[in-house]
Design brief:
With 271 residues, this protein is an alpha/beta fold. It has a single domain, classed as SOS response associated peptidase-like (hypothetical protein yedk fold), CATH 3.90.1680.10. 14% of the residues lie in helices and 30% in strands. It is globular. Its EC number is 3.4.-.-. Keywords: Covalent protein-DNA linkage, DNA damage, DNA-binding, Hydrolase, Lyase, Protease. One of its GO terms (molecular function) is peptidase activity.
């Protein structure tokens, strides 16, 4: 799964990377090294601009809330539970299937955090130990320092309790698509601990390589089988993972120090 990630690139840089045609400086976000559910995040999408002369899709950098609210939902209360959509079933789940065929996006990140689930920890849980050990967090990022382009979906939700002209009448939310974690060797692996992403956690955000960006964002592509083919996992060996401070476990902590690579797992954690 993906429950936390880092996003520190400037909007100008993201606009260049993704060949964005339109973005609003008023929507600029501060660098966020501990992005958590329900926060506002950057997404890249192709969509026609309202009241524009041409109906053609325009590549945009937008600010959306992380945690998808289906258009048919009675309230947005479940958004924090809708941060991830599984690649294997996204085309058939009622909450995601319409967005999958017409409202796809890319959610740019520096990388994501995952807390290792080790065999020793599972044994303690089975034994019924009351005090659970701290999990060691890892930061997973492209080995070459490039942007981590997560496949995503976005959706519109109308708050019917508010007037049409109310600034909060419309919610635009998003979700990260996840897939099975890679079992092959990492491009750069830590000296000790997990040697593959699957050793850390069985799921991971689905990273889109640049050759798939245009096809994934193209709203004219609506064939389910065609779109499913774009969700194939990227080639193995593109990622690196390294241990970081358990400070990231507290969402109130936020700063570049969270990305500092540790020489090994923190004392008192399982890895």
């Amino acid at each position: 799964m993906c429950g936390r990630y880092a996003s520190s690139r400037k909007p100008e840089d993201l606009a260049t990377i993704f060949e964005v045609e339109q973005w609003d400086p008023a929507e600029a976000l501060e660098p966020d090294y501990n992005v958590a559910p329900t926060k506002e995040v950057y997404v890249v999408l192709d969509r026609a601009v309202k009241d524009a002369e041409s109906p053609r899709p325009v590549r945009q950098l937008r600010k959306l809330k992380w945690g998808l609210v289906p258009s048919w939902a009675k309230s947005p209360e479940g958004a924090a539970r809708m941060i991830n959509a599984r690649a294997e079933t996204v085309h058939e789940k009622p909450s995601y299937r319409k967005a999958f065929t017409s409202r796809r996006c890319i959610i740019p990140a520096d990388g994501y955090y995952e807390w290792v689930t080790a065999a020793a920890e599972r044994e303690l849980e089975v034994e019924g130990k009351k005090k659970r050990p701290r999990k060691q967090p890892y930061f997973v990022t492209p080995a070459d320092g490039s942007v981590f382009a997560m496949a995503g979906l976005y959706e519109f939700w109308r708050d019917r309790t508010l007037a049409d002209d109310h600034p909060l009448a419309w919610w635009v939310t998003c979700s990260v698509i996840t897939t099975e974690a890679e079992t092959g060797p990492l491009g750069v692996a830590p000296a000790e601990g997990p040697q593959s992403l699957a050793d850390i956690h069985p799921r991971m955000p689905l990273m889109l390589t640049p050759d798939r960006w245009d096809a994934w964002l193209d709203p004219s592509r609506t064939d389910t089988d065609d779109l499913q083919s774009l969700l194939a996992p990227p080639p193995e060996g593109l990622m690196r993972a390294y241990p970081v401070s358990t400070a990231v476990s507290n969402v109130r902590n936020n700063g570049p120090e969270l990305l500092t690579e540790l020489e090994g797992p923190e004392e008192g954690t399982l890895f």
